[in-house]
Amino acid sequence: MIYMTHRSLPILFAMLPLLACAQLACAQGHGNRVSPHETVSVDLKGDKITISYGRPYLKGRKLDDIEAYGKVWRLGADEATKLTVTTKTRIGDSLELEPGSYSLFAMAGADKWTIIVNRVADQWGAFSYKQSDDLGRFDVPVKQGSPVEQFTISLTKQSDSAATLSFAWGDTSVSTAVKPM
Fold first, then answer.
1. Where in the sequence is the domain holding 43, given as residue range(s)?
2. Tens of pLDDT along 93-117?
3. How far apart are CA 169 and CA 151, in angstroms?
């Protein structure tokens, strides 16, 4: 049991803002994910490409209301989207990745998205994103399609040595090639 005296009250009141800040900081952590999470992968001749990401819903909003065009976005919700490759891999037309894990970001636009591959695999959202940690960027054209309520990333096997990586949300989708080298 804790006993309070008239001398303890000022100390308690002085600590309340600190306790509130600590609680807010904990709420930002991985334990309080807002969206469901999913992992997608493809096996190409024994080499694996895996993506883990949060799947937010539009809930009547538009993509550019949620993620402003031209602003770096974590490609999902909660922690940054994570790409893991088990062998040297090419993404897009020319970006080469060594085996390991990376974070994926994008800058959405009306006509194209810029896909960003960043060296720092484990980060919360885009809050501590640094362009200096980018391995590379490439543009992909936007395609209009059937509405997708929940953000979706897919890896579709095209052959034993190639897959298509697609991102879809709302009536917008973008795709690029992914191939082990």
1. 35-180
2. 889 999 999 999 999 999 999 999 9
3. 5
Q: Which residues of 92-120 are buried (b: 16+ CB within 10 A; e: fewer)?
A: beebebeeeebbbbbbbeeeebbbbbbee
What is the residue type of 81?
T
Question: Which candidate, 36, 43, 35, places its Cα nearest to that of 155?
Answer: 43
Residue 26 lies in a domain: no
Tell whether 85 is covered by a domain: yes
- Alpha-helix residue ranges (DSSP H) falling in the chain: 8-27, 63-66
Closest CA to 76 of 24, 126, 26: 126
22 inside domain: no
Is the pTM higher than 0.70? The answer reads yes
Q: How far apart are CA 62 and CA 168, in angstroms?
A: 13
| Total domain count, the chain | 1
* pLDDT tens digits, 106-160: 999 999 999 999 999 998 878 888 999 999 999 999 999 889 999 999 999 999 9
Number of Cβ atoms within 10 Å of the Cβ of 31: 7
User: 87 is written with which tokens?
Assistant: 């062998």
Q: How far is CA 157 from CA 23, 52, 62, in A?
A: 44, 17, 30
Radius of gyration, alpha carbons of the chain: 21
Pairwise CA distance, residues 59 & 73, whole Å: 18
